[in-house]
Fold these 2 entries.
Entry 1:
Amino acid sequence: MTDKELIEKIRNDNERAFAEIIDKYKDACFRVAYGIVQDKHTADDVVQDVFVKFWQIRKDFELTSKFTTWMYRVATNMALNKVRKEKRSKVFSSFGFDDDNDNEFENKLTHNAEADNNDRNEYIKTALKTALNTLPKKQRIAFVLNKYEKMSYKEIAEVMELSLSSVESLIHRAKKGLQKKLLNTYKNI
Amino acid sequence: MNCKEVQNNLIFYVDNELDDVKKKIIGEHLQSCEVCREKYEFLKNTMSFIEEQSQQKANPFVTTRILAEIKQEKRQSYWAKVLNTVAIAAMLVIAVFAGKLAADFYIYKNQNTAITSIETQDDLEQYVFYDIQSFDYYYLNE
């Protein structure tokens, strides 16, 4: 069944069609959310929120719209909101904590390097999460859609409503930014 | 190319996005420079890690969880509708009751005014509750 056929059924409250569309796209939605939040449980929560949101707006969903485009947009926004909330709660939970990303970055890595110098994967995971968090929003979304969801620049341009050249530039800058941050980290090991 | 120039291009080298000339120069530099090679290895591992992460799948129970959540929302919205109807009905009853009270009070107040201000038959005829005969009888017998 095509997405349009499924959506038409979902608009008529068909739960079986809804379950089918979830099964079809939950992993794609998860990958994008994971790329941004870098945490399995939070990414699963984002998947759940995205599809519940879709059910709530099903009657207003335009049949001319592409479901995946809508899904990627909502998933990236919800994931970014989770990251923002996480950052805010960290600031509130540690009185006097400096919210400067660089400090957070160094603190975590120093701690990790001391605590478990041999666990490279854990180290890379922390370094990557922190480096991704320092990227500007649009660069992060473009990079994640490209690397985690293997989307072409053209598809990313459609989701982000940008020109192809803007997407190319965003991904290029994202890679440069990540490289700079990761290599700075490497100096600290 | 010096170390700084090489390190500025490492991520693109890892992603195989450089032209053949740059690729060759950086490849040769990495063979001879241990510092750059280590950094290259680190970036390569990080990009491989992203590749591994991109193979991950959502929780297999997520569909069940979503369906359960929308069922619960449906139930909640049903009770919300019931409560809304009950609340509207209660408000209507209260409004009707208050209206009746206000009307009764208005009538009672007007009746009292009428009794105190009746002096002529013309005055009396302005009121709904009157009895011409008893009025005449009252004045004739007075």
Entry 2:
Amino acid sequence: MRYFIPLLVLIFIGCGGGGSGGEKEQEPTLPHSNVKKPVAKPINDPYFYQQWYLAKNNNFYNQYSINDKAHVNGGEYYKLYRGKGVKIAIIDDGLDVNHPDLQDASLTTYNVHTGGTDVSQNGNNSHGTKVTGIIAAQANERDIFGIASESEILFLKYYNPTNPVELQELFQKANDFGADIISNSWGTKGNVTDAQVDIIKYYVNKKNIKGNVPLIVFATGNEYIRKESDESAIEGVIGVGATDERNEKAPYSNYGNHVDIMAPGGSLESSFGILSLYPTYLGQGKVLANEAGTSFAAPIVSGALAMLLQANPNLTKSDVEYLIKTTSDKIPCNDNYVGEYGHNIFCGYGKLNITKLLDKALGK
Amino acid sequence: MKYFLLGVVVLSTVGCANTYYYQGGKKQELEPVKKISRTTDTYDFYKTKSGAKVGVSDTMLVKFRNTANLEFYVKKYNLTIVEELIPNLFEIRVANKSMTIDIANELYEQEDIEYAHPNFLQEVQKR
């Protein structure tokens, strides 16, 4: 018996690690940023006031009764950090590289179907230009303000329909490019195959030529359903859901345990989409478009992560995951936030708050 | 009359011949359909249970737990290795695309193979 009690003690100690136990894990010590604070640059883009998802313009917000907190709160950081030195790969259906608001962007392109650099869109497609505009539209005196306009972009055009071999080639190109962030506003229609899961898992953990593990961002989709079996649900991927102008989860935004973070994706029910670029060749002098969906929430998060990595390039992937968990706003949602960092299947760890994200990353 | 009924049963069985592939350890049914956009006769098309259309060509994807028997399988099924996509995941060509699904399913059932399925052509959904 005298040996039995110490044995029981040992057994309990051995089981202690996995439970909640009510004790918080020790918070990681974030690496110090050695980046000198950049000189602030102005925002002169004429339609910035309509980019309700980035910042509050009093007149615009009042006119359309937008919730005061519907934006991602970049504040003064928009003037300081625009993704300089950060590489983003965007995988989508094509891009209007001749769009006037992309003329000074750092753009490299690759077409997986042809092996060439022509990534023009086919037919009436405009998705890739809209997605890219949210990140890369230049800070200038025309059109809109791209959230990470100084980042280096590799645009990778997929061919639709596609297969896992092409998927692997796309991610390898991103890896060769040294992508810090890989932004995906798409998903497979139907089942994701074992090979697709494996390929994305591999690149989630594969260091790029700079020696960094990339941040892979996927939109969670717009089917109004619980869906935990697509690319956005693969372990290590950052799954992005959408909020709307009410600062609530957009009804269409798919949900589940895999949702990590929310960002504005606009409303499908009203006219409050996300203002971005429209391919010039599609028509009649139109250069801007409004569209809603998790497709447009994902690049907002990707762009914010580029701002973050410029501000503090020493952050690891796990640091970034920790920051997402601890700085996102717990917006009102359909369910409680539970667990150590407060997670909710509808709203993940909450909605992106860029000021809180960068403040914490900079030790403020 | 009984021959007629027997004929109906036989014909209906042939018509429903089970085509499937493995995904996530489960059989996924496939129903042959007409081809979708993109290409050519290099693909046969099927509909999955969820209604999504997939294309099957003469290539498949095989993930080995270990590759000790790789050459054995290549010879047995008259395969050609196209490339290793990521460690132990190979794109492999079969001699005839009508055999892709069956060979992939047979390989899936081998202990040294983690999974095998056609290099499915699938539609991408913009979100």
